[in-house]
Amino acid sequence: MSTALNLDLQLRPLTAADNSAIAGVIREVSAEFGLTADRGYTVADPNLDHLYELYSQPDSAYWVVELDGRVIGGGGIAPLQCSTEAICELQKMYFLPAARGLGLARTLALKAMEYAREHGYQRCYLETTASLTRAIRLYEQLGFEHIDSAMGCTGHVDCEVRMLKTL
Fold it and tell me: What value does the mean pLDDT of the chain take?
């Protein structure tokens, strides 16, 4: 992947060797926005240091963005837990400042939704928080609609923004 800035960017599937790097990205971005573990955000996820193993499960995938060989962001798709419908969840979309404003989150989200459609999902759910205004705008532009009630059992009790998209 190249941009007008001629950056050496790569969007690729997560590998086991990326576990520490993407966990670091998630922790750094979470701290930047005050998304603390005690409030149920992703940094509280016991699988945070083992995302490769988590997203190696059936009908799940995670991608990372590399800049000059350094992981600077990522995002994934997985079945919505505790749901009997064909609903997936867009998960753990985090990008360091170096990755922002380049269209990488959009590219990754579109790739994730394409993957979801190919794996038989009919709808895509996500949870976020109101302080992530740029992310919310992106999701709205991608066709996600705000919904009132939480779906599934994500454990993200302080994610007050819930959105759903028909695939």
Answer: 89
